[in-house]
Specification:
The chain is α+β, with helices and mostly antiparallel strands. The protein is about 30% helix and about 40% strand. The chain contains 5 helices and 11 strands, in the order βββαββαβαββαββαβ. The strands form 3 sheets. A 5-stranded antiparallel sheet has the order 2-3-6-4-5, with helices on both faces. Strands 9-10-8-11 form a 4-stranded antiparallel sheet, with no helix packed on it. Strands 1-7 form a two-stranded antiparallel ribbon.
C-alpha cells in the first residue's frame, strides 16, 4: 500500500482546455473535505472541479465526483489510476477551464486519468506506514531511556509537557508499538485513532 509525500499542483493543456490538479496527502476524511472546499473556492470560476479521495483507516473510503462532466469520464478514471498505483490517504481535485473544443467521452477519460497520474507522480509515491498516536506520562529519571526508545521506534513527538511528571504525545509506526508498551515505567497511556 502506498501514499504520497507532498501536496502539489500540476497543470496540463489539452485542446485549449486547462486542467489543474491539486493533490494532497491526508490523515482524515475531514481533512479531505476541507481541502476540496478550499480548492473549489480557489477555482470557483472553473467549469468543473472533479474530486477524488481514497482513504484507509481500518477500512477503505473512496469517493469521486464528475462535477457535471459526462458520467464516469472524470472521477472514475482518476480513481482507477489510484487503484492501479495502489495509492491511499490522499485527496485530488482536477479543475477544468473549458477551451472551446469538446474532447468527447474517451478524450475526457484519457485526460483526467493522465492528470491524476502526473499529479501522483509529482507528489512522490512513498510506502504507506500505519501510524498510532498515543499519550503517556513518565518520571524525570526515565528520560534518557525513553528518548533512546523513541529514537528506536522513529517517533514523531507532537507535544511535551513538564509538570510533576513528563507527559508526551507522540506518533509512531503501529508496527513498533510493542517496543514502547514493554517500557514498564510509562503511566496513563492513552491511544488515539
Amino acid at each position: 500500500m502506498n501514499t504520497i509525500k507532498y501536496q502539489v499542483s500540476v497543470e496540463i493543456i489539452e485542446k485549449k482546455s486547462k486542467f489543474i490538479a491539486n493533490i494532497k496527502p491526508i490523515a482524515s476524511l475531514d481533512e479531505a473535505k476541507d481541502f476540496i472546499n478550499e480548492i473549489k473556492s480557489q477555482y470557483n470560476d472553473a467549469r468543473h472541479n472533479c474530486t477524488l479521495y481514497r482513504f484507509y483507516k481500518d477500512k477503505e473510503y473512496l469517493k469521486y465526483d464528475d462535477d457535471k462532466e459526462p458520467k464516469l469520464t472524470a472521477g472514475k478514471p482518476m480513481a482507477e489510476v489510484a487503484r492501479l498505483m495502489d495509492i491511499y490517504n490522499f485527496v485530488l481535485i482536477v479543475s477544468r477551464y473549458f477551451g472551446g473544443i469538446k474532447l468527447g467521452a474517451s478524450g475526457l477519460i484519457r485526460v483526467y486519468a493522465k492528470t491524476a497520474k502526473l499529479s501522483i507522480l509529482e507528489a512522490k509515491i512513498i510506502t504507506f506506514i500505519k501510524m498510532s498516536e498515543l499519550e503517556f506520562e513518565f518520571s524525570y529519571e526515565n528520560t534518557k531511556v525513553l528518548e533512546q526508545a523513541l529514537d528506536k521506534v522513529e517517533a514523531q513527538i507532537l507535544s511535551k509537557n513538564f509538570e510533576k511528571n513528563i507527559k508526551y504525545k507522540i506518533k509512531i509506526p503501529s508496527a513498533k508499538l510493542e517496543i514502547l508498551q514493554s517500557l514498564d515505567f510509562l503511566e496513563n497511556i492513552k491511544y488515539f485513532d
